[in-house]
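Shipment paperwork, digital attachment
Item: protein structure file
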Amino acid sequence: MTLEHLLIFGGVCVITWLAFIYLWPSFILRVFKRAILVKGFGDGPIPVNTLCTEPQALFADPIHPPASASKLATTGVNRDTLPTVGWLDLYKGPQILHVPDMAGRYYSVQFTDPSTNTNFAYVGKRTTGTLAGEYLISGPHWKGDVPQGMKIICSPNNSVLVLGRILVYDDSDLPTAYALARQIQMVPFAGRQSSQ
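Attachment content:
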């Protein structure tokens, strides 16, 4: 093999490696988006701009999931926080995230920009506390008034992956944690305005 061939081969290897590093996170997020929007946790699709919490039975016994359970639910490695997921499309307008009073319990809601695979905001015990609250989630070009008492989270993209987690202390605490997780909800801002 000549030096010219080695340089060409090395260049192709470097370009392939850089393409893999750059494209792999985006590919994984597309797979995750499809899992959310098509299968959900196995009991049907999770509509855009809604949040869904993993079913109690699936969380309690991940070793023996029902045949309908998706890989989204059965591949998790974290067995002490109950997941809530959703995919937002902010193109038509902002959404409002409502979180209940968690009474000191650990929880977090993470917002991820799928175009760059970066987390741009968190709502939760460590960042906003555990009191009930409402957060206006807006796209990059939205302009409008934020209702009094509501905090705004500006997304760098109109497409947003939302991952929520709520701590489950033990098996007997699962119903309480599940009830709290189901109260973490997303509602359209426009619908909220017209109802006031």
